[in-house]
Design brief:
Order of helices and strands: EEEHEEHEHEE
Radius of gyration: 20 Å
Oligomer: single chain
CATH superfamily of one domain: Transposase IS200-like
Structural class: alpha+beta
Distance between the termini: 46 Å
Number of strands: 8
CATH class of one domain: Alpha Beta
Strand content: 25-35%
């Protein structure tokens, strides 16, 4: 026998009660990006990162909706692969990754300053359809659209920085 589950009805208002809301959902980390930062001109990073640095950073980034998947540390660059929740714009990812890293290094006693140039690239299947699904999900949860409809340019994974915030 097939059971049919219907949403509860608020009898006083006559409106259905939603099954899902923002407080009881954990969005999937669908969007993936590569990120790289470079030391300031004439400087080098330490040969190895301070112990426990990426464990500390991972928990901080997770609170921002950014998940560290893997990283590579070198004297001339730091590279990382991140996945993000739909609410995280690429420019926010770039700023938060570099800012939290620089702050953690300062707290560890490593005086590393970074150049202004950096790299953020979309990876994988970040397609218009993926973003439209996420926009629809955000709308269903009573939130604003996450991205403008023209944020995706072509098939190379290049993104414009036009997150919709109002």
């Amino acid at each position: 026998m097939l059971a049919l589950h219907l949403p509860a009805v608020n009898l006083s208002a006559g409106m259905p009660v939603p099954l899902y809301s923002a407080h009881n959902l954990n969005p999937a980390y669908l969007l993936r990006y590569s990120w790289a930062a470079f030391p300031a001109k004439g400087e080098l990073l330490p040969a190895d990162p301070p112990g426990g640095l990426f464990d500390l950073l991972s928990s901080s980034w997770e609170a921002d909706g950014i998940r560290l998947l893997e990283h590579r540390w070198g004297a001339q660059r730091i590279q990382a692969t991140f996945s993000t929740t739909p609410q995280v714009a690429p420019d926010f990812l770039a700023a938060r990754a570099k800012g939290r890293l620089q702050h953690a290094l300062r707290r560890a006693g490593v005086g590393a300053s970074f150049a202004r140039n950096f790299s953020v690239r979309a990876l994988g299947n970040n397609t218009r359809e993926t973003v439209e699904i996420q926009n629809n999900l955000a709308w269903q949860l009573g939130q604003v659209r996450v991205w403008e409809s023209n944020y995706y340019a072509g098939t190379t994974g290049e993104y414009t920085m036009h997150a919709v915030r109002s």
